[in-house]
Write a structure and sequence with these properties.
Length: 110
């Protein structure tokens, strides 16, 4: 039997309870869904540091996603990534944007 690729309402309630005051983000795709904690400032700094490192820059956002991932378990997520490697970029991009990174900031000279 295949493991579910989307959390049930009961699982979401359990994740919320288990993670206390952490802000959780449900990111739903057609085939897969993940639940992640919003990154902390320390998580963000680590990702930014990795982006500056030629050896780590290609996996910086993936590492952020893996650090913040709450559901599914990492082993299952890795199985999904082997089948559909593009989900890493899709979900990590949404996580980055949900952390407050905005493309359209208005500025005014005062």
């Amino acid at each position: 039997m295949n493991a579910p690729t989307h959390p049930t309402d009961e699982q979401i309630a359990e994740l919320k309870s288990a993670n206390g005051n952490a802000e959780l983000l449900l990111m739903e795709g057609k085939e897969f869904s993940v639940v992640a904690k919003l990154p902390t400032r320390a998580n963000w700094r680590r990702m930014r540091s990795e982006l500056q490192d030629d050896q780590k820059s290609q996996v910086a956002q993936e590492n952020l996603l893996r650090t913040c991932l709450v559901w599914p378990e990492l082993a299952r997520f890795d199985e999904w990534c082997e089948r559909r490697p593009g989900i890493v970029e899709s979900f990590s991009n949404h996580l980055v944007m949900s952390a407050g990174m905005e493309k359209d900031i208005e500025k005014k000279l005062l």
